[in-house]
């Protein structure tokens, strides 16, 4: 099993029969399966990578992307959208995915990097770097959402609500979520006034109140996000 380091930096093109983007009704509830991967494998794409990111909305902390290639003969049981799992189950599945996957990569971009570009650009760059860091070449990538990072080394397809529809994307969502939560827990030890271990940097009432009382922390908080934007300036 090949695993690339989490700090790794920043396809004969064969066109799939399936559309480049698959949309989903926002009201629909899905259960992830391996059908999208099987359809691609039937067309000759053997190694299917799943991509997802976590942390687009928070006021603090990085955005974290993960890329996972699963072994179709050894799929982990219980995979689902990370948001629909308890923390305990996510942690257990994290270990299972790391043990069973063909390859796993991670990339995080800091709050400063997000402020220097924007959250969408940072998210797409993190996903691109994840694919580039793989030690095995994927034949195809399934991406959560409706945006495809530029410059990928393989064909790709977006899936709206992909973490609820594709087991490979669901696995990536779990890897990214568990990793980011641990990063914010560590940040909470350094900056205890903000309660980061409780909300992972999201804009809860308690977090917003702490920002009002303490001010934001340069390198931790996103100065391009309201309510910080325009009120505080990050130290260079």
TrEMBL record:
Co-factor: note: Manganese or magnesium. Binds 1 divalent metal ion per monomer in the absence of substrate. May bind a second metal ion after substrate binding.
Domain RNase H type-2: 46-236
Reactions listed under catalytic activity: Endonucleolytic cleavage to 5'-phosphomonoester
Compositionally biased region (Basic and acidic residues): 12-27
Superkingdom of origin: Bacteria
E.C. number: 3.1.26.4
Keyword field: Cytoplasm, Endonuclease, Hydrolase, Manganese, Metal-binding, Nuclease
Single GO BP term: mismatch repair
Residues at which a divalent metal cation binds: 52-53, 144
Principal cellular location given in the protein's record: cytoplasm
GO molecular function, one term: manganese ion binding
Disordered, as annotated region: 1-27
One Gene Ontology cellular component annotation held by this UniProt entry: cytoplasm
Required co-factors: Mn(2+); Mg(2+)
Any one Pfam family match given in the protein's UniProt record, by short name: RNase_HII
Record's subcellular location: Cytoplasm
NCBIfam families listed in its UniProt record: PRK00015.1-3 (NF000595)
Family indicated by similarity: Belongs to the RNase HII family.
Function: Endonuclease that specifically degrades the RNA of RNA-DNA hybrids.
Protein name: Ribonuclease HII
Source organism per UniProt: Pseudochrobactrum saccharolyticum
Species classification: Bacteria, Pseudomonadati, Pseudomonadota, Alphaproteobacteria, Hyphomicrobiales
Name of the gene: rnhB
């Amino acid at each position: 099993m090949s695993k690339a380091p989490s700090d790794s930096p920043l396809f004969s093109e064969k066109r799939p029969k399936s559309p480049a983007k698959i949309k989903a009704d926002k009201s629909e509830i899905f259960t992830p399966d391996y059908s999208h991967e099987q359809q691609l494998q039937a067309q000759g794409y053997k190694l299917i990578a799943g991509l997802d990111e976590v942390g687009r909305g928070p006021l603090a902390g990085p955005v974290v992307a993960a890329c996972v290639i699963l072994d179709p003969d050894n799929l982990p049981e219980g995979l689902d959208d990370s948001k629909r799992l308890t923390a305990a189950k996510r942690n257990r599945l994290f270990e299972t995915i790391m043990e069973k996957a063909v390859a796993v990569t991670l990339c995080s971009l800091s709050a400063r990097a997000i402020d220097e570009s924007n959250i969408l650009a940072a998210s797409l760059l993190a996903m691109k770097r994840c694919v580039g860091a793989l030690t095995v070449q994927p034949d195809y990538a399934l991406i959560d959402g409706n945006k495809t990072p530029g410059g990928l080394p393989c064909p790709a397809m977006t899936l709206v609500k992909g973490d609820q529809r594709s087991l490979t994307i669901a696995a990536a969502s779990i890897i990214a979520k568990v990793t980011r939560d641990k990063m914010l827990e560590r940040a909470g030890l350094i900056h205890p006034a903000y309660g980061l271990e409780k909300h992972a940097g999201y804009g809860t009432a308690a977090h917003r109140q702490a920002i009002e009382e303490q001010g934001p922390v340069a390198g931790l908080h996103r100065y391009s996000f309201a309510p910080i934007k325009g009120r505080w300036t990050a130290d260079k």
